[in-house]
Amino acid sequence: MSDTAFDDLRDLYQEVILDHGRRPRHARRMAAYDATAKGDNPLCGDRVQVFVKYAPDGTIAETSFDARGCAISVASADLMAEVVMGRSKADTATLFAAFRELARTGCCPHCEAAMEPALERLAPLAGVHEYPSRVKCATLAWHALSAALQGQGETTSEGGEP
Amino acid sequence: MNDVTIRPAVLDVARIRQDFPILAQKVRGKPLVFLDSAASAQKPRAVIEAMREAMETQYANVHRGLHWMSERTTDAYEAGRDAAAGLLNARDRHEVVFTRNITESLNLMAHSYGRGVLRPDQAVLISGMEHHSNIVPWQLLRAERGNELRVCPITDAGELDMVAFERLLADGKVGLVSITHMSNVLGTCTPAERIVRIAHAHGAKVLLDGAQAVVHRRIDLQALDCDFYAFTGHKLYGPTGIGVLWGRRELLDRMPPFLGGGEMISSVTYERSTWAEVPHKFEAGTPPILEGIGLKAAIEYVNSIGYDAIAAHEASLTDHALARLGALEGFRILGRAQDRGGVVSFAMDRAHAHDVATLLDRQGIAVRAGHHCAEPLMRRFGLESTARASFALYTTHEEIDFLADTLARVREFFA
Predict the structure, then answer these.
(1) Can you tell me the ipTM of this complex?
(2) Which residues of B fall below an 8 Å CB-CB distance to A?
(3) Is B226 a catalytic residue?
(4) How far, in Å, CA of A73 to CA of A78, rounded?
(5) Which of B242, B142, B232 is CA-nearest to residue B184?
């Protein structure tokens, strides 16, 4: 890409975000699932529905989503589906908390070492911390997943983020 | 209103831009290209100075103090009412009610006219291109009193379906038609005079939401013949915190108060209170004093330029934008109404409106992105959100060229 006008946006729109935003691997509605929840950002109109299948041991076997939203919200949902696979509910909640800090502040100095490989995968999304109005885009799918795991049907990214 | 000065119908945009201090600002190191005036317009120095001067030289509460400062402030504030009456060509200044914004004007209508004058078996008719503020108050009324809410569809071009409009009025059950005078998403100007004529023929009163229209064209209530007209100050280059509801005196007189408190009463005892005359009946509490003074300055500023010149400039900008954006590959422009104002909403095939807006922002271009508080309208066109560029009297053709050029590059970015 020769256009240098948007060079400083490469932090926000890294190649992995553009790629997963354009061609998400986990974007589909599941026919059969164990849990689902919708996420809604009423301010901008973004919507996502997350589907979860559990393994016999209660860990997440598979996650998929159906989203209407910007590149960041779709890429975030897709990367989320990737990194939560095989995790317990508690583990997923810890990872969500770490990711929220990453999205808000750009780093996560207190995060558990065990989370590091997953957070590294999510690191391209850390660029949103410089765009306060876009932080919700990155966390919407996580809010929905969290609601699904807790057995709630709907959630919103309102109020949860700065 | 009867200004006989002949003004050229061409704006000296460069000179006008000097009147708006904020336009000299840089955003992210780039000159500000402000294409979000339909959300809220920037303020000319005349408005800023009028409000500052009031605070520095003549400020007190209005309508109650028997002292010099209060009397002077009351005069200045009430002059805002005269200016608003003049802007709309209203016959009687007492028909101009000040509110906090147009949302409050519409809620006042739903509350006082909806609950106080409409019978529960009467319907309210809105259109398929209303702002949420002209939908939700009527839903609240329906939930509380059972008034049916009818929605007149719009065509694919984004115009009001006038055949459906007449059909929806045919049974005579519609008591109030509440319709936008210009869509904040499509830019469509609705055929207000025709709407009023048809509605009146079917026994319905008409409220026009002029939030956008008043910015772009001269409003003449005598020609429109509507029953209520609402607008807000901050979109008309005035301050936030002041809106207007104009209504026919005999209708305002029949309506019960909206909010209760000081200023709106004639006398108060514990047994009963009596209401002040209109407009004060609807103006409880300390009013937006400085904002009224600022609104007057804004109206005078707009009048000094003249609606003929403003309308010609914005029509030229809109034509230019439709041509430039229409020629871009991968863009869809919403609505192609014959009669339209300076608002253009568009969607890009490769990127969501928020991503488009973020990239434009990097170049100093401010547009609105989202559902524009008109979710049902978005759904009508099968979209979740659009980006919207809106034009004002300080917008230049070069800014629109820059927008179009930048949009082409944004699309490449998402290739």
Answers:
(1) 0.83
(2) 350-355, 358-359, 362-363, 369-371, 375, 378, 384-385, 406, 409-410, 412-415
(3) no
(4) 9
(5) B232
